[in-house]
Amino acid sequence: MQKKNKKDPSQMRHGYTTGACATACTKAALTALITGEAQETATIHLPIGRDVTFTIEKNSFTDKAVSCETIKDGGDDPDATHGALIVSTVSWQDEPGICLDGGIGVGRVTKPGLPVAVGEAAINPVPRKMLYSTVEETLAEFKITRGVKVIISVPDGEEIAKNTLNGRLGIIGGISILGTRGTVVPFSSSAYMASIVEAISVAHATGNDHVVMTTGGRSEKYAMKQYEGLPEEAFIEMGDFVGFAVKHCKRLGIKRVSLVGMMGKFSKVAQGVMMVHSKSAPINFEFLAQLAEEVGATSEIVQQVSAANTASQVGEIMLETGNKRFFDHLCEACCTSSLNHVKGGLVMDTAIYSMKGELLGRADGIDTID
Questions:
Q1: Does residue 1 lie within any of the structural domains?
Q2: Range of 117's domain?
Q3: What pLDDT was estimated at residue 4?
């Protein structure tokens, strides 16, 4: 079988946010409501400063309202909402101004800490601004001063939301209408970082001064068993963004941060690398050898660690030789590196697990920096 070439990130196709799709549908529906004519396309202005035209898949007319639909194109980003049907239903209202709300499949906020107030539809600030300004511009274009009601729906939104963290964040009943640019950048770090910020904000706003940061779903499963007394919103997947996540915890006033992960990424954290993507700084095996020496490993074992190819191999060496203190020492180094990164002000814990869920080592309650 011929190996498939990976696509160059610079050649990857950008998509559009749910916020941009909702705005395009709203413009089309309002225009159809005013003119009585079905709309095949809608052109809107994106926050990044350019215009884009969306295809309108369907127009539905009733006596009092018009609904327009488009299909969200996420580009080359593997987003949960790619291919979702986004619908905007627009009608006149007796009251002046614009009433914006969510319909079927758009979640409703039930916890504080998000950029949308509790009780409101989960339509984030930038999409709200896009929707309001587009409605105002369309009304001005046709010289109309009537009040308008806009309902954004996503028919499959409740099912799609099961593949997101919305439930943990207190967004119930569907997805969020999101986007700060209007476009979706494939594999965007900024999008992931924004989700970390949102999760920490919800944890803080719901009274959690202790959060557990994990590197992925598997480590989160182990973390939830270890810290079973904590509420679900206290568990946050930080991915590779260790330094960024810990800094934001300190910024919001979180008092205790527990890191839970595995040998590979946490071997980097221990040596002071706070962005632990596979393409970030390589693992320093001399550093791991030094840790092994500090916990009493023989010179032969220290040499084996120094010559290892992977962090997992180091773990195997230390387990085979019965030196479990090494893993606790590695966890201590993770705590110290994290505290140094944020210049103190937190209590840090770290736990390292094997791929099979075995707790290899842990360090708790470290609050002093080097």
A1: no
A2: 11-184
A3: 42
